[in-house]
Amino acid sequence: MGKADKYNYGVVLDAGSSGTRVYVYRWLKNSLAKESDLLAHKLPELETKDKWTKKVHPGVSTFGETPELVGSDHLKGLINHALNHIPSAAVPNTPIFLLATAGMRLLPDQQRENVLDSICSYLKTETDFFLPDCDQHIQVIPGETEGLYGWVAANYLLGGFDSPTEHDHGKDHHTYGFLDMGGASAQIAFAPNATEADKHANDLTLMRLRTVDGQPQEYKVFVTTWLGFGVNEARKRYVTKLLEEYAIEGLLEIPDPCLPRDAKLTVDGKLATETDLEQQHLLGTGQFDECMRRTLPLLEKNKPCLDEPCLINGQHVPAIDFDVNHFVGISEYWHTTHEIFEMAHKDKSYDFGTYQKRVSEFCNTEWQFIEAGIDDKIYGKKVDEQTAYEVCFKASWLINILHDGIGVPRVGLEHEADTGHNGTKEVIEAGKEKGYLEPFQAVNKIKSTEISWTMGKMVLYASADVPAIEENALPVGFGSNEPGVLVPADFQLPGGGRLQPGSMSVPDQTLTGKITDTILSSDSPHRIPGFLFFLLIMFIGFFYLRRRRAANGTTAFLRRTNSTSMLSKINRLFGRRSGSKDYDRALEDGNTRLYDPSEFELGGMDSDDEESEGKLAGGYVSPTSRRKQGGPPAGRLTPDFMDRRGLLVRTESRERFDGIGGRKSRNASMSPTRRDR
Question: Where is there biased composition of kind Polar residues (predicted)?
Answer without folding.
Answer: 667-677
